């Protein structure tokens, strides 16, 4: 007997006896509201699409990014092209240049995540995969030099079906 056959219910009645998942019971009873989708995006003041889970009061929250990717603030600052201390002070985190690079990074990662297989894999692509069409530079290197528009246009082309 195949391994996948052993996990199937033996009778149709066995499948009916299983309780519904908790969230489905609560929703059908009208006691719970619809959960927010994980991929919900909001358009920011600059027109970038940023996943809503990274925003706090309209600003990209560096603490949420650090927590999701399991990196330090110093490592995140270095990947954005800033000094290690930049993300330690609130006034520097909320500065327009810092917010712009954080939005660029998150927008690129959310666009690549479906192709890469998830956000951690998208971060690996962002940091390590050189893009031949952009001079063999990584997306991280281009964001560091404020050239994220090139990466966005490259991703637009790839999404449209051009040669990667």
Give a description of the structure:
This protein is mainly α and 164 residues long. It has helices at 3-6, 12-16, 22-28, 62-69, 73-80, 90-93, 96-116, 119-128, 139-144, 148-160; strands at residues 41-43, 49-51, 55-56, 59-60, 130-131, 137-138. The strands form three sheets. Strands 1-2 form a two-stranded antiparallel sheet. The protein starts with a helix and ends with a helix.
Give a quick rundown of the structure:
This protein is 52% helix and 9% strand. With 164 residues, the protein is mainly alpha-helical.
SSE order and pairing:
Elements: H1 3-6, H2 12-16, H3 22-28, E1 41-43, E2 49-51, E3 55-56, E4 59-60, H4 62-69, H5 73-80, H6 90-93, H7 96-116, H8 119-128, E5 130-131, E6 137-138, H9 139-144, H10 148-160
Distance between the termini: 44 Å
**Alpha-beta classification:** mainly alpha
Helix fraction, binned, reads: 40-55%
Mean pLDDT: 76
Major sheet attributes: 2 strands, antiparallel
Report Rg.
21 Å
Number of helical segments with 4 or more residues: 10
SSE string, helices as H and strands as E: HHHEEEEHHHHHEEHH
Number of domains: 1
Strand content: 5-15%
* Strand arrangement, major sheet: 1-2
Shape: globular
> How many distinct beta strands?
6
Low-confidence region ranges: 1-48
Q: Any descriptors?
A:
disordered N terminus, 52% helix, 10 helices, mainly alpha, 164 residues, two-stranded antiparallel sheet, two-stranded antiparallel ribbon, 9% strand
């Amino acid at each position: 007997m195949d391994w996948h056959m052993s996990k199937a219910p033996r009778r149709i009645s066995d499948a009916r006896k299983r309780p519904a998942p908790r969230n489905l019971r609560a929703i059908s009873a009208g006691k719970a509201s619809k959960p927010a989708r994980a991929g919900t995006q909001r358009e920011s003041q600059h027109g970038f699409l940023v996943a809503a889970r990274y925003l706090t009061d309209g600003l990209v929250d560096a603490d949420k990014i650090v927590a999701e990717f399991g990196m330090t603030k110093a490592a995140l600052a270095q990947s954005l092209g800033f000094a290690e201390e930049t993300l330690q002070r609130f006034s520097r985190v909320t500065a327009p240049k810092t917010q712009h690079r954080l939005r660029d990074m998150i927008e690129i990662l959310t666009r690549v995540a479906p192709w890469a297989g998830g956000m951690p894999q998208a971060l690996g692509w962002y940091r390590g995969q050189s893009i031949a069409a952009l001079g063999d530079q990584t997306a991280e290197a281009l964001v560091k030099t404020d050239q994220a528009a090139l990466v966005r246009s490259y991703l637009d082309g790839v999404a449209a079906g051009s040669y990667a």
